[in-house]
# Entry
Amino acid sequence: MSNTALLTPAARTLTPAAIGHAATLALYDELALTPKPGLVTLVDAGSHHDMDAHTFMRSIFALRRYFVQIAEAGFDGADFAVLERCGIEAEARMLAATGGINTHRGAIFMLGLLCAAAGAATRDGLAPTPARLRDTLSRRWGSALTARCQRTSTLPGGMAARRLGLRSASQEAALAFPVLFETAVPALQRALRRGLSAQQARLDTLFHVMAVLDDSNLAHRGGLAGLQHAQRSARHFLGAGGAAQPGGLAMAQAMATDFVRRRLSPGGAADTLSAACWLHRICADT
# Structure
């Protein structure tokens, strides 16, 4: 299905089913992008020895109903406890489908919240735009997300973020995802308006996110040095001209080889890219 088929004219709004379907497609957008540094693609497993594209496809298939359900919950005005319960159940389905492997925990959290916000905006009769969805997320569940930040995370990424003084995924959510809305979405919009292909635009967007995100997956795998190496590498790639430069894809592939050697995987950036692809699919002004 083409992106244009999922765009929402200002005069009408999306259904929860369309919101959730767009999220499933956005996860595939991220998986299908190659070359990506350290991340699973359709042709390689990146820095991972316990998962591949088949694992991701099983996970995406298991989650397809979740995104519709949580959009429906947002449409119905559910409080954060309901959204959290939906996410916990979805994570259990993911782990059952993958044999206990975490493929999409971050996306369940991030994309799930965004689908709920889109459902709430739809109920309010608003055509989704990035600004409206961010505002809806903050107004509806910002207080609950801020309170959630006070919990002590037992997940590897959360523990790494706390140990190194980084902004965690929970804190990103409480701030209504600043890297997504202030970095990823504008980068994707600019790239597409410049005439870059979908692959080039998504690759540049991924590197823009990597350059600024406190990616707890990188911090867990490589410590602060690994995170900083990834950020420097992303800035270098963009400074050299990005995906559209002559040899841009070869440069990205060389970085992928380097990340595999260092066992680095920017999973948080991948989740943010998926969210940006989802926004592009459903929003009226992207």
Observations:
- The two ends are 17 Å apart (CA to CA).
- The chain has one domain: 3-282.
